[in-house]
Amino acid sequence: MDLRQLSDAIESVSSRYAASLGIERDDIWYVLKLQEEVGELTQAFLTRTGRSRTRGRTPAEIEAGFREELADVLCHVLLLARHHGVDLEAEIDRKWLNR
Questions:
Q1: Over 80: is that where the pLDDT of 99 sits?
Q2: CATH number at residue 75
Q3: What's the whole-number mean pLDDT along residues 77-81?
Q4: Does the pLDDT at position 12 exceed 80?
Q5: DSSP per-residue string spanning 1-66
Q6: How open is the CA angle 88-65-3, to the nearest 5 degrees?
Q7: pTM of this prediction?
Q8: Non-local CB neighbours of 7 within 8 Å, separated by 6+ positions
Q9: Domain residues for 78?
Q10: What is the chain's mean pLDDT, rounded?
Q11: Which of 2, 42, 67, 68 is most exposed, with minimal Cβ within 10 Å?
């Protein structure tokens, strides 16, 4: 699956979620939601590296939580890019791969 297909699939899930909760996904929502997810990733990282309490979770649960938060951040980056019409594949190719 390429980024565009992945973005389409994630948009479908996100739009259904927003509709079911009555959330307006405007410019501010996309940025703040990404920030929220980065914060959750930071917390998961701190727990994973022993810099925060485990809250009774097992090492396997902590590792799974870290992986889930990485996925959430990626999904919200894709949603933000899509909302603003940014072709991330083209930008990655231009900035990272064609040097």
A1: no
A2: 1.10.287.1080
A3: 98
A4: yes
A5: --HHHHHHHHHHHHHHHHHHHT----HHHHHHHHHHHHHHHHHHHHHHTTSS--TT--HHHHHHHH
A6: 15
A7: 0.93
A8: 78, 79, 81, 82, 88
A9: 3-97
A10: 97
A11: 2
